[in-house]
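G., before I forget:
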Amino acid sequence: MKHKAGDEDALIEAVLAALDHGDEQPATAGEEPPGEGQSRPFLETLGLLAYELEPVAPSAACRDRLLAQLPVQGQKGEVVPFRAKPAARWDPTGSKSPPWYLRPVWMHGLAASLLVAAMFLGAILLERGRELHQLQTVAVALGVEYCPLNPVGDNPIHPGARGAVYVAGDHQHWALQIQGLEPASPDESAYTLWFLTHDRPVRGGVLDFSSNGPVHLRSASMPPDIRAVQVTLENSDAVTEPSGPTVLYGDQMLPLEL
Amino acid sequence: MTPIDSSTVASTSSSEDVALVDRIAHRDAEALARLYDRYSAIMMALAQRILRDSGEAEDVLQEAFVQVWKQAERYNPARSSVSTWLVLIIRSRAIDRLRRRQVGERTAVAAQREKTTVDTSNRGVQTVLVRERHKRVQEELARLPSEQRNVIELAFYRGLTQSEIAAQTSIPLGTVKTRTLLAMKKLRKALGPEIKELL
């Protein structure tokens, strides 16, 4: 069936107008039967324009992040509880194991995030052991995980230092706690936290020794595709990549247990 | 034995796509993963072309597939192919983001960060199909007169209305409309076989 040029112009204009309004599936014009809409061929023409471009593969982490947001389905479609999955071990070489933060199931990311922050505060007030224990109980139930940090090498700078990075279920909120670390001279050096990703180290922050007791650091964002966590002693608090000696290091992600 | 040609591949692929979206509507995450594997490279290329920033392009790609996950039951195969639906989703999201930020101050930073990579590990049928479409679309766009191609690119990649194109290029609105209509009709005719595969 042939159409008048004016009709065709109107169809094209209608398709373009729908596009301007962000309508990804504009209704077909006229009274054509489904699948035979006159405007549809023009819509498909627009859809083909993208194929002019050379395909660009997104990073593997992009796919993993997307799928991690989806509920895991059991064989019958039921949601599998998060504890059904074993803890993943980091592969510092990045060869086989998935990044440590990729957990396919969590149900209470925001609550866990707030809980990590609450745990963080609870850890500062060490005399409130009972409250901390209660918080930890809830944290375990919500699937908060942690990466233990330990001294490295035969002659570590601070052999008595220990720490951990706690990560909430959304894999964005995290909290660092370190004990046994001597304050560095603020004029000469700074302990700096690094997230070691596939591409490059990402600075997590400079440790603050202004209060007595354990050192803490926290944030609401984490870089993707982390392989390990490292604390180094830098000669400035403005370095953009690790250059000083490693004080603490961790590459294991573990479920928090009581 | 009947040889398999690209049209057979394409029609099979189109019906498979519809089946995948139907499974996604029934909360099948694996189906979303498969759809992602098929189309993420083209969608990423489009987002990156619009935003000139690979980091933001990945953000928008994620948003687009989350939208697919949430709205799969609304997809109507009578209105468009899955390919076109996905392309228009990512285009819409990328243009929204483009409008929300100052392009000028980010261009310099984005130019430093932007990197393009092509995953050559996927040698499957879908890659062959995408490559063939890529070649054909490039050929036909190259045949358009430059003034017609320009208005199509401004509309598609920049999200400009015809009035905005006229204002930006100092070309009369009527001329912009005419060039757009001529370009669309030429492309519709030239890409007839590819469009038929999608119907």
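Chain B touches chain A through 71 residues (CB under 8 Å). Residues 29-51 of chain B form the longest helix (23 residues).

More on Monday.
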